[in-house]
Amino acid sequence: MANRIEKLKDLAKKNPKKIVLPEGDEPRILKAASILTSKGLAKIILVGNPAEIETLARRNSISLDKIQIIDPGTYPRREVLVDAFYKARKHKGITKDDARSAVLGNRIYFASLLVRIEAADGFVAGASHTTSNVARAALYGLGLDKEIGVMSSSFIIELDDTTYGDNGIFIFGDCGIVPDPNPERLAGIAISSSRLYEEFFKQKARVALLSYSTKGSARGDSVDKVLKALEIIRKKAPGLLVDGELQLDAAIVPEVAKIKAPGSRVAGKANVLIFPNLDAGNISYKLVQRLGRARVVGPLLQGLNRPASDLSRGCGLEEIIDTCVATVIRAQEE
């Protein structure tokens, strides 16, 4: 297998950042935290009851050396977090008491607010919480990047077969958040995903807006949406290499691109694939992961003011470590 994801660890080690893992009652998280810390990949903060976390670690023979544990109930700056949450959500009618209950009763909210007040550089959660719970905490705690205008998610995909993309490397978006983005949101997803690609791999993103049609080969509302998104992207990010609408084969296979989209600067060599809706994106990344045996990192939440990442509840140890490493690298760019 190509090892571009593995090489991201070298970047993380150069400037390890503080990453909050709020699921301190999950053995997979504790093991990942121990490895990340011992290898110098990140500075880890766990959220939870210290006695309970330490007991779980001993039971599973996991070292917590050099790992910080924060108990929400005794954290000296907890009222700062409460105030931050209240200010962010008071327009929705919540009271100060509501804010206190939410922050001190929900470890993911608590973690996101640690990042907001710069007590940490990013957070990763989802091993025992749904994507909707993690995304809500990220949006409430970190706030939306007004330039992008939409929270979405991307996956880093690394394939054994290095024929396509950049030697088997892609970013897929959105695969976890927005069910049916309108053209403006689809444009925001594409711009966010392209920026992530360039942050991680220091190469120019080549963005394909995917469809069942290539350059007018078919018609429909979905095609129209993609074309409108392309128009918006070219106005908002004129230097971005982007094209659409493209079928997948036209986007990544040079021989097909010559036939279906001759003259395109993206067709046949795309490394960022933007799906027209969440059905297509989620199904595609899971097909590539399970049938194509791809190494997958994410969902990496994007369109926010600070770095955050989600985890699948079925994630393995390697996936947790990879996602934390990716979050560290994003925090280095802040």
Report on the architecture of this protein.
- With 334 residues, the protein is α/β, with parallel strands linked by helices.
- The chain folds into 2 domains: 167 residues, 3-Layer(aba) Sandwich (Rossmann fold), CATH 3.40.50.10950; 139 residues, Isocitrate/Isopropylmalate dehydrogenase-like (Rossmann fold, 3-Layer(aba) Sandwich), CATH 3.40.50.10750.
- The protein has 13 helices and 11 strands.
- Strands 3-2-1-4-11-10-5-6-9-7-8 form an 11-stranded mixed sheet, sandwiched between helices.
- Helix 9 links the parallel strand 7 and strand 8.
- Helix 1 crosses helix 13 and helix 2 packs across helix 13.
- The longest helix has 19 residues.
- The mean pLDDT is 95.
Salient structural properties:
2 domains; Rossmann fold; 334 residues; alpha/beta
Quickly count the helices. Answer: 13
In total, how many domains does the architecture comprise? 2
- What is Rg? 20 Å
Give the strand order of the largest sheet, numbering strands 1, 2, ... along the chain.
3-2-1-4-11-10-5-6-9-7-8
Task: Report mean pLDDT, rounded to a whole number.
Answer: 95
Major sheet characteristics: 11 strands, mixed
- Ranges where pLDDT stays below 50 over 5 or more residues in a row are none
CATH architecture call of the largest domain: 3-Layer(aba) Sandwich
Which structural class is indicated by helix and strand composition? alpha/beta
First-to-last CA distance? 31 Å
The tally of strands reads 11
CATH topology of the largest domain: Rossmann fold
Strand content: 15-25%
